[in-house]
Write a structure and sequence with these properties.
Layout lengths: L13 E3 H10 L6 H9 L1 E3 L14 E6 L5 E7 L10 E3 L3 H6 L7 E5 L5 E11 L10
Parallel strand pairs: 1-2, 4-5
Antiparallel strand pairs: 3-4, 3-7, 6-7
Length: about 140
């Protein structure tokens, strides 16, 4: 495996073709540099072929903070749909970029505003559009 920028390893993440295409479009709109590294280092699969244990767009996930042990339920969405107080987090946020394409059991790592590292284990995917037969969301 080849190391990419921002500690994303080739093969560590999986995106559906549609998610990759849509995220590539966001890259043109002042997206964080980590998005480019993510797009360059992911495995890309057809929506119908993505494993049900992979975080895709609009997946609802349960994560457990590695430092506090506190569980959080989040839904990964595009920036226009983000409502952090309601648990809808933008894929372009540090947490969103850390989660997209990960598999259940993996550690998501991101940098907090003060420079410290946030870290949480992806405990479960409570809902994944593709697993429910929705291949176009």
């Amino acid at each position: 495996m080849q190391a990419a920028a921002n500690n994303i390893l080739l093969g560590e993440r999986t995106l559906t073709e549609l998610d990759h295409q849509r995220l590539s479009r966001l890259q043109d709109r002042a997206a964080p540099p980590a998005l480019e590294a993510l797009l360059d280092a992911t495995d890309i699969v057809a929506a119908r072929a993505v494993a049900p244990n992979v975080v895709t767009m609009y997946s609802q996930v349960r994560i457990v903070d590695a430092h506090t042990g506190q569980a959080h339920t989040l839904t990964l969405c595009y920036p226009a749909d983000a409502e952090p107080a309601a648990g809808f987090i933008s894929v372009l946020s540090p947490v969103g970029l850390a989660l997209i394409g990960l598999r259940v059991g993996a550690l998501a790592r991101w940098q907090l505003p003060g420079g410290e590292e946030g870290c949480a284990r992806l405990e479960a995917i409570l809902f994944q559009p593709e697993a429910s037969g929705d291949y176009t969301t």
